[in-house]
Amino acid sequence: MKYLIVGLGSMGKRRIRNLQYLDETDVIGFDLRKDRRKESEEKYHIKTYATIEQAMNQDPDALIISTPPDHHLEYQMLAAKNKKHFFSEASMFRKGIAKLDKLAKKNKIIAAPSSTLRYNESVKKIKEVVENKAIGKVILVTYHMGQYLPDWHPWEHIKDYYAGQTETSAAKEMVAYELEWLIWVFGDIKEISCIKGKISNLDADIDDTYQLIFQFKNNAIGNLLSEVVSRTPLRVLRVVGEEGTIVWDWLEGKVKIYETKTKKWTEYKEDKGFKEKGYLAKENMYIDEIKNFLNIIRKKEKQVYTLGEEYDILKLVKYAEESAEKKKIIEIKK
């Protein structure tokens, strides 16, 4: 199959690496920026195009859309109208998704939004422990995701790309990104509240901190702190159950589980994996995610995350922002 990478920024280049790791060599790229096209050609030895029309004329079988979030829909619709399968990085906008989903189903194409953390070893272990009730009924879920935004793209100013823009800010993006897997592991949310704002002196007109408190349908209480002001990065989860505790530290790559029946801690460490130079996240989960997309097309695996589910996650983000504006708890209605 032939794959067209739409957008050759950091994520687009990562997706090229993913495909090449999987021995998929028929890869082409599109980006409006000449410097990105040049870098991709020199580093990954792929053919690139300056216009989407030129790229689509090469008749790719599938598109991998790695543009800034506010451009996802135009390329998703282009793929769907041309009956091309597509994978897209996590979105931030609900508008148009229902229409896109309908068109994708009509044209019988695979429309796969990203759900990267479902492929993380530690997240999969946490889900297994919760489902097996090794810590009993879950009571509390507390999670903190923090990074320093200028460290995301140290080669450019934060106002020069989407993460430093008001509507596509990084802290907001990560709320959706993290809620997706939290709901996958712990279940649907029935009510949500949020405090958000620009707390730091970052040189960008963005809300840099989102503090969400929510209640799952199983009555467990959860909180998610997403911020881009931490000078040292972290992802730390603590789950309190009636019969034990789960602790996950992203940087350590460890899940620790305490069970009251044994009165002992058990530690699960992720495989070492590998990282691209300059990146915090290991490549493995991104590779597995793309592999799943390819196998869905080849009818070897089932789709794990749909546009409809992504739409529901983005509604939760909307409700969280509504809560912050109205200073009230929002009940989730489906």
UniProtKB/TrEMBL annotation:
Segments forming domain Gfo/Idh/MocA-like oxidoreductase N-terminal: 1-92
**Molecular function, one GO term:** nucleotide binding
Identify the domain of life.
Answer: Bacteria
Could you list the residue ranges that cross the membrane? none
Q: Which InterPro entries match?
A: Gfo/Idh/MocA-like_OxRdtase_N, Gfo/Idh/MocA_Oxidoreductases, GFO_IDH_MocA-like_dom, NAD(P)-bd_dom_sf
Query: What SUPFAM superfamilies is this protein classified in?
Result: Glyceraldehyde-3-phosphate dehydrogenase-like, C-terminal domain, NAD(P)-binding Rossmann-fold domains
Q: Could you tell me which residue ranges the GFO/IDH/MocA-like oxidoreductase domain spans?
A: 124-247
Organism name = Candidatus Portnoybacteria bacterium RBG_13_40_8
This chain's protein is named Gfo/Idh/MocA-like oxidoreductase N-terminal domain-containing protein
